[in-house]
Amino acid sequence: MYRAYASRAFNDQFDNQEHIKRTLALRQERAELLGYQNHAEYVLEDRMAESVDTALAFLETVYEKAYPAAQKEVGEVAAFAKELDGIDVLEAWDWTYYSNKLKEKLFQYDPEELRPWFKVENVIDGLFTVAKKIYGISMKQVHDVPVYHPDVTTWEAHDADGSYLGLLYIDLFPRETKRGGAWKSSLKGQGLYPDGMRRPQVMIVGSLTPSTDTQPSLLRLDEARTIFHEFGHALHSLLADGYYHGLSGTSVLWDFVELPSQIMENWLLEKEALNLFARHYETGEPLPQELLDKVIAAKNFNAGNFNINQLRYASLDMAWHTTHPSEIEDVDAFEKQATKRFALMQVHPGTNTSCAFSHIFAGGYAAGYYSYKWAEALEADAWSLFEERGIFDPETAAKFRKYILARGNAFHPKELFEAFRGRPLNPEAMLKRDGLI
Ligand SMILES: [Zn+2]
Question: How many Å lie between the centroid of ligand 1 and the Cα of residue 142?
Fold first, then answer.
């Protein structure tokens, strides 16, 4: 199964190698027509990172710390597999099985155990309580707004002084016609309209665990995190204070847009915030500290491997889009060369990533895959200021609101981030949080 999966669209009836070459040639042609050296340079000009060099230097900083950590992790899993089942050489297809076994042994915690503390109503209520404590805003359910499905609830957001901020639709459960995943959309952006300034209307949508006849909707921790994440995007719109709606709210540069959403997730794992809402749905008891400690301890398990995996994708993406297509003869050989230094286990001939790398060849991430890590670094660095000053520190929250949430794309995100953080982005906070330094 591993071999089949890792060789999708490579040397089979749907082989993508020629499509890759053609795509790269066209991207190069466009970049040159517009006066750029290559596709990556063309893309990066309109990103917070601004240049290929900055993005690559950033990836390199993470690599230096993550690679040794990942090697150590592989060694530990290999030793465990040997001890458990006499496995002599740990292969890529053994990795998930044995690392999960090891994780179970080390942390003895099943994510399902947490569900009773995360009844969906409690999570939403808790999220709004947390948002009020951070920004002073209040969310009030309203029943006089037409909705497109009975599952949808509507909420008005009001600022601390009572002024109206916007309308939020919440639509969290699966339906036959709904696609999977979770997202936030804007029905109407904040800003100037022919009849004056208007406040936004936004929605957060997901397909989370629904209730049953006998049980309310009890969420997994990662589902609760999804609600916090999407609400973070919603706040970017609800707290927008721009003039043109095309430049307002979440219409920001690609590698900046996940900062407001990812930072919201942090409050979910803070005792101070959890105590406000994580109550057992039957007994009303707070979440036991012991369980929370295990969740936090298990968080960084195999962080090195996770990082290296993302860096491998990001570097491969950059290699494709910074090399002149005329220099690329063999798609597979090019990939193997570009990803050599990320290998942690034996790489098997006949497997290939690029042919099924839809993010960069079929999606919008071409020369932008690095932005996953970039956004994480931004968010960890921003969050470290909250950690320093207190997670509900009013002054830090006011700064975050003013510089990050309110300004949209009316200023360069670099300026906004530096205005908030008081200095340029430093990836150290992310490395520290992942346990890599
Ligand atoms: Zn997001």
Answer: 26
Q: CATH says 115-298 is which class? A: mainly alpha
Strand partners, 201: 167, 188
Q: What is the pTM of this model?
A: 0.92
Cα 22–chain centre separation: 30
Quick one: CA dihedral 220, 221, 224, 226, positive or negative? negative
Give catalytic status of residue 230 as yes or no.
yes
CATH 1.10.1370.10 residue ranges of the chain are: 2-109+302-371
Domain covering 2-109+302-371 in this structure, CATH number:
1.10.1370.10
Q: How many CA atoms lie within 13 A of 423 on its CB side?
A: 5
Rounded Cα distance, 133 and 138, in Å: 9
Spacing, Cα 25 to ligand 1 middle (Å): 31
| 410/208 Cα distance (integer angstroms) | 35
One pLDDT digit (tens) per residue for the chain, 437 residues: 999 999 999 999 999 999 999 999 999 999 999 999 999 999 999 999 999 999 999 999 999 999 999 999 999 999 999 999 999 999 999 999 999 999 999 998 888 899 999 999 999 999 999 999 999 999 999 999 999 999 999 999 999 999 999 999 999 999 999 988 899 999 999 999 999 999 999 999 999 999 999 999 999 999 999 999 999 999 999 999 999 989 999 999 989 999 999 999 999 989 889 988 999 999 999 999 998 888 888 989 999 999 999 999 999 999 999 999 999 999 999 999 999 999 999 999 999 999 999 999 998 899 999 999 999 999 999 999 999 999 999 999 999 999 999 999 999 999 999 999 999 999 999 999 999 99
d(CA 123, CA 121): 5
Residues of the chain with CATH 1.10.1370.40: 115-298
What is the H or E stretch that residue 132 is in? Answer: helix 120-135
State the catalytic residue, choosing from 41, 230, 265, 379: 230
- Ligand 1 centroid, distance to 202 Cα (angstroms): 14
CA 344 – ligand 1 centroid, Å:
29
